[in-house]
Amino acid sequence: MKETDFLNKLNQSPLFKLSLSSKELFHSNFLWWLGNNERTFPLFKCIMEKFTGQCLSWDYGNISIEREKKHFDLCIKDARSGRLLLILENKVKSIPGLSQLENYKNKDPQADNYVLLSLVMDFPKKDEMEETDWKVYNYKDLHDALLKDVPIDATIYEKELISDYSVFIYSLHQLVQCWKREVTDDQPFVQKRNPKIEECRLHDLYDKLRFSQLALMLQNQLNHTGVDVNMGYSNQSGILDVTIKCREYELMIQVQGNSYRHACVWKSKNRKDCDTLWQQILSDKTISQLKFLTCSGTLFGSDIFQEGIYPIDNSKRGKQYNMFIGRNYVFLYQSRQLRTGITIGQLLENIRNEVENICSNITENAETLERE
Question: What would the mean pLDDT of 53-66 be, rounded to a whole number?
């Protein structure tokens, strides 16, 4: 079956349409319903046995199932002792992150089981995640468990709900597999989406998966201490970040849409510091030699960019940088627009070259300072 076939199946599912308003919470609610219904509890227990790899002694009424507790999507506790038996984190329209899961585990480090249920199965730092206490499963695993032990005592309506949900999550899983085709250097960086993806309101998932693949591809090509590759999603488009630690601040190469940014990020600063910070970084010998923040140095490969440096070339007041002020950081940047038709290989090669030059320059200047 092709991408369009799975999109059509999803469009025919009432439960899929209902799920669009609440994303992960919908799936947590469905599992909660299975576990809090005596007729469907055996099926819920079967699913949890698959996720834990254990034969569980749970009975209906001796466990407590909670949703959205301490930001956990689903928690299962011993009803008498209150001991935390299982924490389940759902990822449907977002990409799993190792740091988030570590934070969740730190909130309750004594839980018996930690389960990640993720629609996307290829993402940065997955290998590290699998070395932790988190067990990683996908929605095909949930689909298979749902079909393994159909509840005999369930009503016809309940069985129909379970059947529709099974078809829905299987189609969603298969759709993601269609999107998970190998990313190659010769593919265009900007690609057209199937219009049915927008119709199903899955364009954000499509972009997140694609940028997750790009981040994974770039991460495998870089091998520098203090360099992190991440992806994100904001303002209806994917984001690719490369962060380079440099003393009290970080340098960042960021791609969003057709905007290619050079940025500096300071922690725990405020708007009043921005001009001072900008001048400080421009005078930093380590960075000034590269002209990183003026977007005019040799770091920029001329063949992948359009003319113009922003905001300089479109500012009547001589504005030198754009800014974003976060809760505990300041993000200052200049940018250039990517040329239409560039390939993934061209973009990633330019990023790799920049990272190599930056890291080499930082090392050389550090050695010079030591000698002095």
Answer: 91
